[in-house]
Write a structure and sequence with these properties.
The structure is a homodimer.
Chain A (H helix, E strand, L loop, with lengths): L11 H9 L4 E2 H11 L8 H13 L3 E8 L2 E8 L1 H24 L9
Antiparallel strand pairs in A: 1-3, 2-3
The structure holds a DNA duplex (30 and 30 nucleotides).
Chain lengths: ~110, ~110
DNA sequence: TTGACATATATCGGTGTTCGATGTAATATA
DNA sequence: TATATTACATCGAACACCGATATATGTCAA
C-alpha cells in the first residue's frame, strides 16, 4: 500500500466478504489468497485483518467455527445471509464510486450513472 | 458519501490536484465542481477540504494567491510542478489498485498488470 | 430594512481504517 | 535443537474524513 495506503481503503471488508462468498476460510488463508490473486499488490496485514473480522462477526456478517488442522486449531469464517446482502451493497457502491473517480480523472470520457 | 464513506477515500487529494491541473480554483469552487461533475455522488465537505488544501500547500504541491471577487476575498489554489508529479503518481496508483479490486470482485476476469 | 439564505473561509474533536510492533504457541525443517 | 513458518491475537499511533461550530460578507424577498 506504499505511498497512499488509503487509496482504496474501505474496500477491504468488501474483498474479504467476496472471498468468503466462495468458501469458508481462516485468517491467514484470506491474506494469502488476496496476495496471490493480486500479484502481491494487495497485501493485507494481520493487524488490519483480525479487528476487521471480529467487527464483522459482531455485526452479524460473519459466523465462525473451529477446526483442527495439522494439530493446530484453525478458526474458520463463514459469510452469513446478512453478510451476503451487505456484500452486494458494498459492490454496488464500489462500482458507483470507482466509476465516478475514473470519470473525474478523465479515465472515462463521461459519467453515465 | 452515504454508507461507506471510506470506499474510495485517499482519492480526495488526487481529485483536487486533478481539478487544479485544469485551472486555479478557490475552495468552494472545488466542492461545487466535483459535486456537479459527479451528479452529486462525490460531496466533499469543507471540514475535509480545507485541512487537506493546507496540508498540500505545506507539502509544496499547491501554492496560493488571493483575489477580490464580489467584495469577498477569495483564496485561489494553484498546482505546483511538484504537485503535478505527485498527481501523476497518485493516478498511476489509483489505476493499479482499482483494477486489482475490480479483478478480485470479479468485475474483470483476470488481472493483467 | 431586516431577516434568511448562500457564499466563503477556517478550526476542532470524534470516528473509523490501517499498520507496525509485539506476544504466544504449535509444527516443520535443517 | 534451533530457526522458520503458520496461525492466532491485541495495542497504540497515524491518518482520512466529517459534523459541528465560528465568522463575515453579499443577495434577495417580505
Amino acid at each position: 500500500m506504499t505511498v497512499n495506503r488509503n487509496l482504496v481503503s474501505g474496500s477491504t471488508s468488501m474483498l474479504l466478504l467476496r472471498l468468503l462468498s466462495e468458501k469458508d476460510m481462516y485468517g491467514y488463508e484470506m491474506i494469502d489468497t488476496l496476495s496471490k490473486r493480486s500479484n502481491n499488490i494487495f497485501e493485507l496485514k494481520v493487524g488490519t485483518l483480525y479487528p476487521l473480522l471480529h467487527s464483522m462477526v459482531k455485526s452479524g456478517y460473519l459466523s465462525t467455527f473451529e477446526e483442527q488442522a495439522n494439530g493446530k486449531l484453525r478458526k474458520y469464517y463463514q459469510i452469513t445471509e446478512s453478510g451476503s446482502r451487505y456484500l452486494g451493497k458494498l459492490m454496488e457502491e464500489w462500482r458507483t464510486h470507482a466509476d465516478v473517480v475514473d470519470m473525474l480523472i478523465g479515465r472515462r470520457v463521461q459519467y453515465e450513472g
